[in-house]
Amino acid sequence: MGKGGTSIPDEEWERFLREAEAGAQGAPKEPSARARMVTRRLQEETGRPEGWRTHQLPPRRRGKGWYAVGLLVTVGLLLVALAPGRVAGWFGGEGAASAPLAAESERPEQPPATQSAPQLPTTDEPFRGSPAARWADGTSGISLPTARATGWMSKQQVAQALDRSRDFLAASSLDRGVLRGERPKKAIALINRHQQDVQHYLATAFTKPSPENDPLLLFSRLATKKVRLVGDVVKTRGRITYREGKRGAVEVTTDVTYVYPVVRAAAGSTEVARTIVRREVVMSWDNPAKVIIEPGTFSLVSYKMDTTNSGCRTFTGYLTPEFSAERAAEDRGDGPEFDPYDRSTSVDALMQEAGDAKCWNATRL
Questions:
Q1: Total domains in the fold of the chain
Q2: Tens digits of residue pLDDT in 314-326
Q3: What's 34-93 look like in SS3?
């Protein structure tokens, strides 16, 4: 169970949902994740919702990146402008500059500050020189709001839904086995198995990854034949919010940035690279009286991803960070610059700002 929030016993939670489900009449055959599309629209009618497969795939554009399936997948990439004054600063020093940040309760107004002198990461201090040095570890960096009765749920049930939403983030983006490439069974178990479009995605993504069916849209998996995680800590920063959604559901929105420090897989490797992944995932804790859903699971509404130093035009299903030698060999071009630690802009806005550019030059890692 994630930290924070008030929870009720699992048995009571499931009993309540079973009782509600038993009274369900005229519920939709399956909820749909069509809101993975740009507009996040859901059909209003109570009949069988249409799947997201009605989308049109945006054309491939010039540059060094990709957008997939209209999911607002943006990639701020690989190519790092390590110029003095642009690299992260006040995060390996002493005093107030190195003090842990307070939890993020709302979207920040500006990106983290920088300092002129770059500080390179080491295996002992893998987050040195980046804003993530001041971020919290694991789920501690994902703040939860105060629970209140919303939609069909009581205050206690909302608290339980918030905890389980954060459990999903931990199981999909922080679990050590998943990071090593194992199938994210715990995370998948929390997803409504009646969402046929989502189940098709899950059945395809791990065996035939593609722009349309990329497991990285929801799950963090490292190419362990090439890289390995440094230490036991993944730094995170983000927040969870909620509101009443359609049909009285509790719609939970998560916006979290994860920082993964890695070295080459070869024994004795010491150069540290960092991959930064930001995901916005919206999940609907549906009323079983109105939507067919298993107790203790949620329906996916949308998921969007932005990654830095993860592989620009590759669809292997794994994060594939590059190191200084590979980055030096790349042609950075004149693409737009992007700060992957900047959480002051939504992923939606980033895509609009990107325009025709596919690969962005990260100003720091």
A1: 1
A2: 789 999 999 998 8
A3: HHHCCCCCCCCCCCCCCCHHHCCCCCCCCCCCCCCCCCCCEEEEEEECCCCCCCECCCCC
